[in-house]
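The freezer alarm interrupted the setup, so I double-checked each line after restarting. Inputs confirmed:
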Amino acid sequence: MLYQISIFHYNTSILLKNTVYLQIILNFQSFLKMSSEKINPYKEKSNAKTEQVAEMFDNISGKYDFLNHFFSLGIDKIWRRKVRNIVKVIPHHQILDVATGTGDLAIALSKLEGSNIIGVDIANKMLDVGRIKVLKQKLEDKVDLRNGDSLNLPFEDNKFDVVTVAFGVRNFENIGKGLNEISRVLNRNGKVIVLEFSNPSKFPIKQLFNFYSRRLMPFIGKLVSKDSRAYSYLPESVQAFPTEDKFAKIIEDNGFTNATFKNVSFGIAAIHVATKS
Ligand SMILES: C[S@@+](CC[C@H](N)C(=O)[O-])C[C@H]1O[C@@H](n2cnc3c(N)ncnc32)[C@H](O)[C@@H]1O
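Predicted 3D structure, all chains:
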């Protein structure tokens, strides 16, 4: 009897020890893989991520378009065209482009017949750059760029046929809240299309992308934009963003169904599509 009790105590203490070890390992793993929601542009500041993101994009607004096309060698235009081709074959009368920035995707979508696009962003200076492009291209009847936070969209329920987000979700302070807001403003069977950077996993694209995004981009980005953090924040937030399959699951957990994705340019970016549930 005494023997059985001591064996029981021995097993319980081993189990407890293992549970503690497992907890330490899990905490360490989550420390290593911080969620992109926790990656802030200005680490030394204590204000909310949304405010810091708006400040950073306002700071670089004058150089954003140039650096965007320069760093991507113009491939970003091809990615936006791919998004437009997806939108083309679904009902698309009322489109909302969330985190529209300087409006490149909104402008690309305006080429679709019968489309009306509203673009929202929290960075006013990015919107100002976009409004000049809209005026120059005489698109003011089709494209309306407004200030608006993706986490609290200034629209009634069920308003839009399609919501697009290009390179914006990674910057959200609360991704789940942003996705639920997008679902709320979509009408029945409405679609969300998210274009976002990924972390390519195959040799040699992974190594090339890492060198390019973590070394070259911060160096040139700092030189040109004069914001010392903006182009270091970019690779950090990309690295912390969930993998494509995990993000598809997050989309389905936050107001959507049938989430699918397609990698583009060797997995440097991915296009996610889902239907409002
Ligand atoms: C990398 S830029 C992308 C701009 C544009 N979609 C494009 O493809 O070039 C990210 C944009 O997301 C905006 N953004 C980030 N968080 C936001 C939020 N919570 N609500 C609205 N816009 C947001 C930023 O201000 C910035 O203009």
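Quick read of the result. The chain has nine helices and seven strands.
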